[in-house]
Design goal:
Length: 80
């Protein structure tokens, strides 16, 4: 898998279509309905990825306490 892009795509509308200008020359157009559903799906998956990233350290390994069945780092911080 290639390195993920860290800059959001540019999005505009023209003539009733939603136009996406993404990284590396990627372009797309969608109906407004398709764009809304895609946005919802992106949001749902992005939240899942942020949560997953929070459960793994920078080295990609699971948080030690979480791996041992203890509270995850965020839960430890909220327990105080």
């Amino acid at each position: 898998m290639s390195k993920p892009h860290d800059k959001p795509s540019k999005v505009t509308s023209a003539e009733g279509e939603v136009l996406i200008d993404g990284p590396d020359g990627m372009t797309s157009s969608m109906t407004p309905e398709a764009a809304l559903e895609t946005a919802r799906r992106l949001g749902d998956v992005a939240v899942d990825a942020i949560i997953e990233r929070g459960q793994h350290g920078a080295d990609g390994k699971a948080d030690q306490a979480d791996a041992e069945g203890g509270p995850a780092a965020g839960e430890r911080a909220n327990a105080s």
